[in-house]
Design a protein that fits this description.
Helix content: 10-25%
Shape: globular
CATH class: Mainly Beta
Distance between the termini: 46 Å
Number of strands: 18
Bound molecules: 2-oxoglutaric acid
Radius of gyration: 19 Å
Number of domains: 1
Strand content: 15-25%
Low-confidence stretches: none
Number of helices: 7
CATH architecture: Sandwich
CATH superfamily: q2cbj1_9rhob like domain
């Protein structure tokens, strides 16, 4: 099925309607499907789109809380209620990395029983989540795309049997630039064996220009393209095959995908800020990537950097 011709779909201003590889639609799986069915679909497609998997009122409340924080920081339009999420005039870029901290409404959604139940069904085991919550607030315009990447390059120091839960915290029509997945990308062996083996927090020890920290001032020289496979989502299907698969999302939907599922997000063509979170889940008994655990996860900070002989 092809995406409606009317939806405005661009990535940094360029059309995503690549003639040879027109975008397609993400296929939904019943949220109540058995663990076996969920695992089979995940293995086949590299993702699960579960409609109405989470309590919509809790999800909307989490989104409203984010909007209130953005409004308090002057990033929303002062003439509208914060809960409408209307961007402030001229708003180009938003940083919301701290907005997941001390945020009870959001924690109730991403660490609460309905979410954990989904992952327990998939893993058929008790699960744990990473403590770090990635919050995204995407302003209108071409400046806040998410370039194509695998998540494993950012969080691959524990088990790779780890899943991402991408949670829209507002309704996200296609033209708002919600998450899109590259069809079949979890089966791209060459990409998995090369790019997929990167750890973004490594550097070549012994080369002074790549020392991660000098006198407290970060001099980190990124040798990994920010962890992105490419900055160009438009031509990627032509390079490696597949189509960008996308969808409208409603608050309450959940998109689950593997560490080796290529994903990206395009431009937001609405006047509203797109709010979402992404969080990670694994079997409780398996090794965990310590960068994302605890009250103050070290994340990609100096403590995460590892020197390699290269
Ligand atoms: O929401 C986005 O634009 C990016 C999300 C993402 O990269 C992820 O879920 O891993």
């Amino acid at each position: 099925m092809n995406i409606a011709a009317t939806a405005d779909l661009t990535y940094q201003g360029r059309s995503l309607r690549n003639d040879g590889h027109p975008p397609g639609t993400l296929a939904a799986t019943a949220a109540g499907a058995s663990g076996a069915e969920l695992r089979e679909r995940l293995d086949r497609d590299g993702y699960l789109l579960l409609r109405d998997a989470l309590p919509r009122d809790h999800v909307l409340e989490a989104g409203h809380e984010l909007y209130r924080r953005l409004a308090a920081a002057g990033q929303l339009h002062p003439d509208h209620p914060p809960e409408d999420g209307i961007a402030a005039p001229g708003l180009a870029y938003l940083s919301a990395h701290d907005a997941g901290r001390r945020n009870r409404p959001l924690q109730r959604v991403v660490f609460g029983a309905p979410m954990l139940a989904v992952f327990e069904r998939i893993f058929e085991a008790p699960v744990r989540h990473f403590d770090y919550i990635w919050v995204r607030a995407k302003s209108p315009g071409p400046d806040t795309v998410t370039p194509p990447h695998y998540d494993v390059v950012f969080m691959g120091r524990g088990t790779h049997d780890l899943l991402t839960g991408w949670t829209p915290l507002c309704d996200v029509p296609l033209e708002m630039g919600g998450l899109m997945i590259l069809e079949g990308s979890h089966r791209l062996t060459d990409v998995r064996e090369t790019y997929g083996r990167i750890d973004v927090d490594t550097y070549c020890a012994g080369t002074p220009e790549e020392r991660p920290v000098v006198s407290g001032e970060s001099r980190w020289a990124d040798r990994h393209n920010g962890g992105h496979f490419t900055k160009d989502a438009v031509s990627l299907p032509g390079r490696v095959g597949g189509r960008w698969l996308m969808s409208d999302y409603r608050a309450g939907d959940l998109l689950v995908f593997t560490m080796h599922t290529m994903h990206s997000a395009g431009d937001n063509h609405t006047g509203r800020v797109r709010v979402s979170s992404d969080t990670r889940y694994q079997r409780a008994g398996e090794p965990v990537d310590e960068r994302w655990i605890g009250d103050e996860p070290i994340a990609h900070g100096p403590g995460a950097k590892r020197g390699l002989i290269c």
